[in-house]
Amino acid sequence: MSTVTTGAPPRADDTTPPRPASGRRPRRERQWPAYVFLSPWMIGALVLTLIPMAVSLYLSFTDYNLFDPPHWVGLRNYTEMLTEDPRYWRSVGTTLLYVVIAVPLKLAFALGVAMLLRSLGRGRAFYRSAFYAPSLLGASMTIALVWRALFNDGGSVTHVLDAVGIHTGGWIGNPDLAVYAVVLLTVWQFGAPMVIFLAGLQQISPDLYEAAALDGAGRWRQFVSITVPMLSPVVFFNLVLEMIQSFQVFTPAFAISGGDGGPADSTLFYTLYLYERGFTASHMGYAAAMAWMLLIAVGVITLILFRTSRSWVFYADEEGR
After folding, report:
1. Residues in the chain with pLDDT < 50?
2. Does residue 75 fall inside a structural domain?
3. Which of 36, 128, 254, 284 is a Cys-bridge partner for 64, taking CB atoms 3.0 to 4.6 Å apart?
4. Dist. CA 260–CA 136, nearest whole Å
């Protein structure tokens, strides 16, 4: 029986090295362009974030006034902050009150407007841009100063409230109302979470609402049983972002209070007090310790939100949720 060969045998003088079976370049050669493009971000993260964080952590254990060399004091800044400084705890209470009120109201307004925009046919793009505009403008010092003028004694808001029989004498000078002026300024900037809510609402199938309507479910029942569960990942996303941003509020508090947290420390937010201790009183070591306490607190609260989200956030593509 004869055999058939499908190719000529290799020659003895053929010195060409064999090519890799895959035909690809070595892994190291394929990765270096990625590192080149990532290098600006990596350098920026190192120089603008990681190194300043390390320096701030060191300064939090020192007595530093911006002019003299830092002097190591160990845990004294943290001890003074937690046990000897009543204004520190006043700033913590004011910030927590602001977060607890402002974040739910802002998300509620954002979701309500997003649902209204979803039902619109024509003009949705215009209204979406119009409602988003305050999110771009509201963080500026100019808008904060205008807000202060509106809610000050003799401002437009005071005149409107006086006309309907509500006499406040101006929110800015009232220790019981000043913080709520900052809350309303934050709620007015609901455009960013509104856009995210609108994107999430558009992903919910209309068939779900049609089936619920055929079963006799009203609008409220549809909202509770369909919209809220299907939108829960988006609610969780907005909640985490808004909570972190609210703990860092500074510009509205600085402008509305005149930079001193008044009246009677009613607008002494955490970041405003940090600024006062660091740049007004030149206690930069103490301010650095406050910054790290804020980082730890926000991290713990964020971790709690992630842990508790397992019981109320529904993901449609996962079983057993």
Report:
1. 1-6, 12, 319-321
2. no
3. 284
4. 26
SS (H, E, C) the chain: CCCCCCCCCCCCCCCCCCCCCCCCCCHHHHHHHHHHHHHHHHHHHHHHHHHHHHHHHHHCCEECCCCCCCEECCCHHHHHHHHCCHHHHHHHHHHHHHHHHHHHHHHHHHHHHHHHHHHCCCCHHHHHHHHHHHHHHCCCHHHHHHHHHHHCCCCHHHHHHHHCCCCCCCCCCCCCCHHHHHHHHHHHCCHHHHHHHHHHHCCCCHHHHHHHHHCCCCHHHHHHHHHHHHHHHHHHHHHHHHHHHHHCCCHHHHHHHCCCCCCCCCCCCHHHHHHHHHHHCCCHHHHHHHHHHHHHHHHHHHHHHHHHHHHCCCCCCCCCC
Whole-number pLDDT of residue 240: 95
CB 245 within 8 A of CB 222: no
Number of domains present in the structure of the chain: 1
Instruction: Note the pLDDT of residue 304.
Output: 95
User: Among 60, 58, 48, which residue's Cα sits nearest to residue 290?
Assistant: 60
Does some domain include residue 305? yes
Assigned domain for 130 exists: yes
What's the CATH code of the domain at 90?
A: 1.10.3720.10
Domain that residue 301 falls in: 86-311
> Dihedral through CA 301, CA 304, CA 310, CA 316, nearest 10?
20
